[in-house]
Write a structure and sequence with these properties.
41% of the residues lie in helices and 19% in strands. The chain has 13 helices and ten strands.
Amino acid sequence: MNKSTKEPKSFTALGKKNQGTNILIIAIIINTNPITPIVPNFCSLNLFSTNYKQHKALYFLFFLCIMQQVTKASGNIEPFNSDKIYYSILSAGASKSLAIETINIVKKKYYKGISTQEILDVVLKNLKKEKGVAQRYDLKRAIMNLGPSGFPFEEYFARILNNYDYNTKVNNYIKGKRITHEIDIVAKKHNLSYMIECKYHNEAGIQTKLHVAMYTYARFLDVSKFDVPWLATNTKCVNEAEEYAKGINLKITSWNYPKRESLRDLIEKKDLYPITSIKYIDEKIKEKLFSANIVLAKDLLGYTTKELVLQTGLKEKEINTILNEVKEICGIK
């Protein structure tokens, strides 16, 4: 394996104070995750030696680990996690060599408190080296660009469900005990009916709160016509919402929940990327495609060039550029 792409070892650092001797013992647990370490490799040190210099070096290593921080869009500070970025890059279809190269570039650009937006910009710039990877990696922002209203997201989520054998109907009005409710999506599969509430956010850093899960369930109870209540959102749900949902059998689909069936998972498994993943499409073209009920990027491949010229008003050469980008995003040769 080439030295520049060899997968180096990473670590987890844990600190424990020995009350009897007031000696700080640092345990460095080496694993084989293919991530480049944030700090130099201290594997050769005798970890449990009482040698003062070695303890000093290990303390410094631990200090660096806990000081690696980033600033999220919400303004919250959290530890810098290169593993998370690495596996997200692989999930977007990048090669291991490109993933490792990108992580190394991010590390060089890192400074304490760097924003996640700055990291994203650095990552996207380097991922352009492999076709379609940058667009797939930037999925969260592409979904946020569906707005500003939530209606395109409702259409988009319904189309995702169609690809998983659900029958769906968007924008429903159903009478409850005393009032009429607007139900975003009604879905059916395997003799079960689902009442789906879509909560869309078009700004980064906003989480779906507990009260959204609570009013979704209240609406489900009032309508009393469905088997399963379902909350779908393009961002994360707060922990309280997820716990509440478990107690009442409310199905939740959020950006990263549940494991292996999150919104991101459902999209990536079947290349169900939105048309906003296509960098060549501007706001005006996006609205024209929405009007034609085209929300999935790969839906464009079902039209002829002439049909798309009529739908968008673009020239034939521009349409071909868009179709080529769609193929790159969906991994079609």
